[in-house]
């Protein structure tokens, strides 16, 4: 009768694979703070310091020439009593909400489709991503020419566009702004969903197909739940981007007709660079930062995104 013996263990190999004393295995190979130092310095100089200056300036009066003077809460009181400011906040939230409602389903469906292996998928995806390569200014100038009531498409299809002046009414101008924003930025969110859809394990679809699940059931019971975190990330990016939209309004509508499309970012521009009231402009900017931060935190909290854990955490 023979007795089974354990194979000999290479002591040198054990030393190579075992973590150092006093440190857990998850900490081995983790980069130190020095790796993040350049990014931290850059973020501090170009984000934290300017934000701190904006906070200070929001409590001061400054026309851009003389030294700033402390005025306390005067800037904030004037803004809260200004009906244009309150309307601008509502318009910013409205345009942001329209952007989320329009872009999310389109980007989600296109992203899932682009993650497949359809014929000519790569060529069509490349063509669709072209608007993302253009600047906001170029896109706005392009659509302003296309929608010109005298020489653009509306002038050739008055049976559809009426008098052709889409930017002459509040509803038309808001619709144009939402459409132009979706046309340019939906490809970005499509790219997010495409990458996330390709990361879904194929074994889930194979198991569902064996159980007899059709295409639609696989989409709603596998794809959508697996894309939950990507949907939250995309939505937060849309909210922050929508609340800080400026270039499109400046070029397409200039806040008009009247003040019907004067969103908060454009109102900040008017206060600071047209009225030379940089203190009031700083207060608008700070209020916009606070609103975007609160909305983002609410989304993160309600969605449970803050409790998400990565399988690669600590590597």
UniProtKB/TrEMBL annotation:
Keywords: Cell membrane, Membrane, Transmembrane, Transmembrane helix, Transport. It is a multi-pass membrane protein. Its main location: membrane. One of its GO terms (cellular component) is plasma membrane. It holds the Pfam family BPD_transp_1. Residues 1-27 are annotated as: Disordered. The keyword Transmembrane helix applies. Belongs to the binding-protein-dependent transport system permease family. This is Xylobiose transport system permease protein. It comes from Streptomyces wuyuanensis.
């Amino acid at each position: 009768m023979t007795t089974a013996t354990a194979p000999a263990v290479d002591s040198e190999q054990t030393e190579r694979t075992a973590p150092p004393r006093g440190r857990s295995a998850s900490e081995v190979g983790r980069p130190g703070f020095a790796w993040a130092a350049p990014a931290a310095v850059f973020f501090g100089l170009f984000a934290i310091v300017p934000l701190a200056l904006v906070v200070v300036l929001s409590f001061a009066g400054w026309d851009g020439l003389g030294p700033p003077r402390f005025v306390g809460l005067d800037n904030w009181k004037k803004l809260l009593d200004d009906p244009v400011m309150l309307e601008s906040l509502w318009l910013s939230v409205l345009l942001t909400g329209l952007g989320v409602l329009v872009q999310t389903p389109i980007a989600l469906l296109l992203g899932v489709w682009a993650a497949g292996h359809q014929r000519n998928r790569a060529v069509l995806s490349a063509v669709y991503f072209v608007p993302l390569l253009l600047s906001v200014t170029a896109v706005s100038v392009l659509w302003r020419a296309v929608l010109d009531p005298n020489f653009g498409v509306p002038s050739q299809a008055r049976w559809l566009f009426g008098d052709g002046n889409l930017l002459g009414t509040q509803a038309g101008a808001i619709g144009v702004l939402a459409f132009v924003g979706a046309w340019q930025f939906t490809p970005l969110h499509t790219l997010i969903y495409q990458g996330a859809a390709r990361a879904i394990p194929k074994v889930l679809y194979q198991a569902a197909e064996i159980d007899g699940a059709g295409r639609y059931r696989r989409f709603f019971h596998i794809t959508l739940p697996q894309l939950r975190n990507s949907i939250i990330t995309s939505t937060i990016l849309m909210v922050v981007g929508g609340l800080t939209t400026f270039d499109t309004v400046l070029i397409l509508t200039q806040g008009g007709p009247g003040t019907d499309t004067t969103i908060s970012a454009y109102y900040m521009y008017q206060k600071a660079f047209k009225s030379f009231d940089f203190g009031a402009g700083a207060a608008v900017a700070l209020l916009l930062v606070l609103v975007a931060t609160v909305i983002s935190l609410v989304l993160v909290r309600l969605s449970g995104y803050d409790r998400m854990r990565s399988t690669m955490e600590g590597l």
